[in-house]
Each structure stands twice: as structure tokens, then as C-alpha cells.
Amino acid sequence: MRQKALVVGATGIVGSALIQQLLQEGWEVHGLARRPDALPAGAHGVSADLRDAQATREALSGLAPTHVFITTWSRQANEAENIRVNAAMVRHLLDAVQPAGTVQHVALVTGLKHYLGPFEAYAQGNLPQTPFREEQPRLPVDNFYYAQEDEVFAAAARDGFHWSVHRPHTVIGAAVGNAMNMGTTLAVHATLCRHTGRPFQFPGSRAQWEGVTDMTDAGVLARHLLWATRTPAAANQAFNVVNGDVFRWRWMWGRIAAWFDIEAVPFSGEVQPLAVQMANDAAPWSALAATHGLAEPDIHRLISPWHTDADLGRPLEVITDMSKSRRMGFLDYQPSDDAFFALFARLRAARLIP
């Protein structure tokens, strides 16, 4: 039987990379989003709002996927609402595909907030030691990632499918309108610095500037998601997913600046949030887009400074361990600077930056 994938969050950074990988490998691909009008050729769009259980059942009636990949979430005003809404979305989705009885594997993408805590208590309190390892217990705080996992575990016990949980670090990849998009945020910031003469000032903390870190390329994550579906030992397991290299932002900041032909301004001794640096950039970006014929004049569709500030402002070194996947045979490697450069080239080719 041909494998049939349902990718939830099809237009996001992870979902779009995963769809490309699935199509290359000959899968039948259905991409679910509220507005699935920008899927690549060969993918079938499914429009649904997962917050609505009845609408989700109707949208997925008769689809009968063999594999479900959950790569989306909905940001709410507080963690209690994040838990309520995002747990319900996963529950509505898995309830909707349950009647067909065809699901063999469900993969859930979460992230390092599993170890660092939710937005309201991010990188606070008594955190596990780094590098983070999958066997470390959950933090003693409410977290919507835990609620999503629990919905998957409950449905797997009910319906008999295998599951995998994938925990990337900050993901490098392309998407418009994404809530967490460091790569494009830095590309827009660097572009504006070049065209306005504003200094390309590192926005984060001393810990991030000087400490060792890692990241996750969307293509690596896509290949890891597929690897877990066809590796028996990976069934019913959680995995960290990173590129395989480590770096310090004091080095990476210069590499990014050089790509844009600007000078890197190092850590000043104080956090300089992008939310402040870019607070008045909507009008300059719109003017720049008009001058260069860019595809997206609305800067808010491209940037997420709040998310980039959260990552680059962390007061501790953040690095993950990939030994679990390596021991099971996943050996993909991607230099993180090359991942940034490939993204920047893709944004330029798509006329999202000049």
C-alpha cells in the first residue's frame, strides 16, 4: 500500500520542508492548514481549523492517512490557554483520523521548551543540566508540549499506532507568516542594517554570545521525521534533533554579517532586543520592498523578533545531545552556517529580501 502522509501545519517552516521531502520520496501527501493555498505541486491541500472538532472531522472524512505528522501549534495569551487550545487541536485531529483505522505512525514536533520551560517561565528555575538528553524528566510546571504529548500517547494506546516525538532546537528554514522564524528575522534585520546604515548589533545575552549552542535545519528535521517512521527501534520514542555541529554566536554573528556584506557589531555588554531595534521598521521595510519589487511588503509576515529575543537572550548555555538518534543510525549532518546561507539565498531567490 502506498504510504499516505497527512502533514499538519503544512505551510510552516517544518511542514513545508517535510512535504518537499515526502514528495521526493514518492509519498502521497496531504497538507493541512487553515489556508493551504501555497503547497508545492503534487501535494493535496486540506483546509481545516483544528480548534473546531466537527469541522476537523468533516475535512478529514475519507482521507485515511497511514502517517500523521504534527508540526503546528497555536500561540495563546498564557500557558493555561496554550495547554487548553493545543491539546484540543491534537485531540480533534487524532479523533478525526481514528475511524478509518489506517494510521500506523504519528510524529509530533515540539522543541526545547520541553527542557527550558514554557514561555511564562522560560529558562527559569531549576533546569536540567546541558546537554539536554531525552531521558531527563519533565519539569514540574505546566507546559503545552507535555499536553500535546499526552494526547498522542492516549490516542496511540486507544488506536494501536506507533508514535515519535521530535525536539529540535531553533529551526532554520523558510516560511512566510510563521510565528517562530529566527532565520528570516535575522535576514530582514541585516538587510535593513545594510540599506539604512544601522549597526548590525547582536541583540542577545553574554551567555549566548560566548557559550556553545546548536540549531536545527528544517531539512535535517524533515529527514529525521521520515527516519523515525521506518526505523523499528525509533517507535514510541522521543528524540532531540540538531544539525550535529556546535558554534558560538560571537562567531556566527560575523558569518551572517559577512554574507550581507555588513560589519558585525559584537555584544555590547547589555541585551539589545530586536523587538526594540526593529520596533519602527514596518515603514522602512515597506519602502524597501517597493523599491526592489519584493514579494512581501508587510514586515510582520516575515519577522518574529519576540522569538529571536527569547532564544538569543537566554541566560544559560543551551545545547542538546543527539546520541540516541546516532546510536539508532540517524547520521545526517548539516553545518549551521551553511543552513543560514542556504536560507538567505532561498529568500533572495523568492524576492523576500533584495
From TrEMBL:
Pfam annotation, one family: Epimerase
Listed InterPro entries: Epimerase_deHydtase (IPR001509), NAD(P)-bd_dom_sf (IPR036291), PRISE-like_Rossmann-fold (IPR055222)
Domain NAD-dependent epimerase/dehydratase residue range list: 5-240
Gene3D superfamilies the record matches: NAD(P)-binding Rossmann-like Domain
Protein name, as recorded: Nucleoside-diphosphate-sugar epimerase
